[in-house]
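[Q] Does anyone have a clean structure-token version of this?
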Amino acid sequence: MSDAETLAERVRAGDLRLHELGEYADHETAAAARRHLLEVETDAELDAVSDFTFDAERASDAHIENMIGGAQIPMGVAGPVQVTGGAADGEYYLPLATTEGALVASVNRGLSVIATANGADARVTKSGMTRAPVFSVSGIAEAEEVVSWVEENTDQLREAAESTTSHGELLAVDPYVVGDSVFLRFVYDTKDAMGMNMATIATREAAEVVEAQTPASLVAVSGNLCSDKKPAAINVVEGRGRSVTADVKIPRETVEERLHTTPEAIEEANTRKNLVGSAKAGSLGFNAHAANVVAAAFLATGQDAAQVVEGSNAITTIEAREDHLYASVSLASLEVGTVGGGTKLATQSEALDVLGLRGGGDPAGTNAEALAEVIAVGALAGELSLLAALASRHLSSAHEDLGR
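[A] Here you go.
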């Protein structure tokens, strides 16, 4: 009996628990033991799950608990396309990991059309990762006292928060009062890191200062006014992570020849679908399928997949002009990084290498900003391609042709 099988039998006998296996064997063997246990208990065959390329020890230490292997998602590439951004500058291929047939083809079509228009412009217009603890007070009088103290002592909070990190910078502390609850929305520049953990640790340190200097008592380091991984109007309005816009001007003849429709038809489809339809639905996203591209790019490059929720907070605008079509997509809260988290995993690191954006930028923060700009251009390409397919009534036939 192998070491993995022996460990699995000890778990079945109740001598060990799944999470303790890493204490009795290396992480590769511990994962094999968990797979063996599952195969015995469930009759599943986990040959594909066992075939992974990332380092088991690093993954178990930083990314996953009770590891059994890896989940594999097909990865494709779209592009290249010229991106002129505040940080991005040049031709980029965009890696996309997805199981949705026709998505990469659609984005690639959009990028091809954008390329014929000499590329797209993109800019990060606002940057700031947030964490918003909630404090309890006795009533509105104490709430006002806390808010006044925070406004007068932001430098003291900044010193406490920044003592926990060599990279993050506290940009602002915005107070919100609801009865006997006080929310303080801390906003950080996290440079090339997505920065959620950085912001949480820094905010916890600052919250202790608030507790020591005011009547407030910390209830939770996150009071959901941040707001993380949930649809939230505050992120649509104020932004979280990177707020980024990409736009392009496509000659009228290119629209007609490459997209097989007219600027006017695409504008009408966008107005009636993305704007009026979304408004009627009470949507926080006024776009066709921006989250499709955000999700595929996130999975490919090691971003936090749950933050696609915020990434879908996007508005697509289309205007038919005399000699061209103007198109833009504005993503209010795109939370991305090129260091830390899943960006360290093997395939995700390679995808960032394809983009030329792995690791920290020079100056700090520019790689993450460039990634946000390229993803925004990819989302714009997806919007153009889908809207054109709808306007020309080619959407269903495209899926049929690709066998999806």
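[Q] Thanks! Anything notable?
[A] The longest strand covers residues 120-131.
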